[in-house]
Amino acid sequence: MGAEQRLVQLARRRAELVAHSAAQRAELGDICHVWRVPMAIADQGVTVWRFLRMHPALLVGLGVAFAVARPRRAVNWLGRGWALWRVFRGMAAGKWKPN
């Protein structure tokens, strides 16, 4: 096999790999397109979470306003929140395991 034949073979192989790579990029783009909306919603949730972590007084103020406006509901939601807090803390510590 001559050097020129080897170069032609390498160029052909390179073209095949470039085409295969383009097909894989297109497939990955299709897969990512399906996840675009859920990931955008998750990004907004993370943004809200970061905002609330930077401004905890706002969250406390909303909680106090809710407690003043609807005291009975506030007590019910406080119990649910406490239960969720315990589950999250247990999960974070590795103590809680789903059945």
Q: Work out the number of β strands.
A: 0
Listing every helix as H and every strand as E from the N terminus to the C terminus, the arrangement reads HHH
Radius of gyration: 28 Å
| Beta-strand share of residues | under 5%
Number of helices: 3
Principal-axes geometry comes out as elongated
Helix content: over 70%
Low-pLDDT segments: none
Q: Supply the helix-strand structural class.
A: mainly alpha
- What does the average pLDDT come to? 90
Largest sheet: none
N- and C-termini, Cα separation? 65 Å
Throw out a few tags for this protein.
90% helix; mainly alpha; elongated; 99 residues; single chain
What is the compact description of this entry?
The protein is an all-alpha fold. It has three helices and no strands.
Please give a structural write-up.
With about 100 residues, this protein is mainly α. The chain contains three helices and no strands. It has helices at about 5-55, 55-70, 70-95. The radius of gyration is 28 Å and the shape is elongated. The chain starts with a helix and ends in a 6-residue tail after the last helix. The model has no long low-confidence stretch (mean pLDDT about 90).
Secondary-structure topology with pairs:
Elements: H1 3-54, H2 56-69, H3 71-93
